[in-house]
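Structure (tokenized):
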């Protein structure tokens, strides 16, 4: 049998003596998967563990195309084909949009993603290409962060809270973009508190509670179940939200 795209097995993460992840295990074969949960449940720690961002101490296994990631530095993990859009975007205020994209345009060998194609995907960035990272709106910053990650030519794109702080209209635009990327064969691991966005993008939903995967369910089941939404996410059901 072929290896899954991503296989996390028995993963624990510690900050000193505090355990942030507890025996996290799941596999992704491809397509889109969402991990949902409230603040403080370990979602960002899981992202950082996969892409090799310190400072958590890890035990367990994270395998990508059969290659062990635990212990590898983040730049080597990126070269294996994992793109990362971190929470908060983390752009360089002094660099223009075009400079953000050009500094990554030589990476990778397939040249599937180029600055020109990023501008086609996000025409708004083409209009703002000479503006610095700090001069962009929240939506524009998120587009640039996604474009920057795509320029590493990943086969798996991990995004941590991409809807954070964005207007509903911008979120809808991003949902359409993610669906387009999924249709082109890019695997997406979406970390989200926004249940509407999470279920709009991925049919498979993993629910994190207190550093563990508490449920492996579907967008249809999670959206339809008021009990699941209240029990795991502490939110009013989608059907009752105005």
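Design, position by position:
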């Amino acid at each position: 049998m072929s290896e899954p795209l991503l296989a996390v097995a028995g993963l624990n993460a510690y900050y000193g003596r505090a355990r942030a992840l507890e025996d996290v295990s799941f596999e992704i074969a491809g397509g889109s998967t969402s991990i949902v949960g409230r603040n403080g449940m370990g979602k960002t720690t899981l992202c950082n563990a996969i892409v090799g961002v310190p400072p958590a101490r890890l035990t367990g296994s994270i395998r990508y195309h059969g290659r062990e990631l635990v212990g590898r530095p983040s730049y080597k993990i990126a070269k294996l084909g994992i793109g990362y859009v971190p929470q908060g975007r983390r752009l360089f205020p002094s660099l223009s949009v075009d400079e953000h994209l050009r500094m990554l345009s030589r990476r990778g060998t397939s040249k599937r993603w180029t600055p020109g194609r990023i501008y086609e995907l996000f025409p708004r960035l083409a209009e703002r290409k000479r503006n610095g990272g700090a001069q962009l709106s929240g939506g524009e910053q998120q587009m640039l962060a996604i474009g920057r990650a795509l320029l590493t030519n990943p086969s798996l794109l991990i995004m941590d809270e991409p809807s954070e702080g964005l207007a509903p209209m911008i979120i809808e635009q991003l949902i359409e973009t993610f669906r387009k990327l999924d249709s082109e064969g890019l695997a997406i691991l979406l970390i989200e508190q926004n249940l509407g966005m999470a279920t709009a993008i991925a049919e498979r939903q993993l629910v994190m509670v207190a550093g563990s995967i508490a449920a492996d369910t579907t967008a249809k089941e999670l959206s339809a179940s008021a009990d699941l939404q209240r029990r795991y996410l502490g939110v009013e059901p989608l059907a009752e939200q105005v």
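Reviewer-requested clarification: The first strand starts at residue 6 and ends at 15. The domain at 6-240 is CATH 3.40.50.300 (Rossmann fold).
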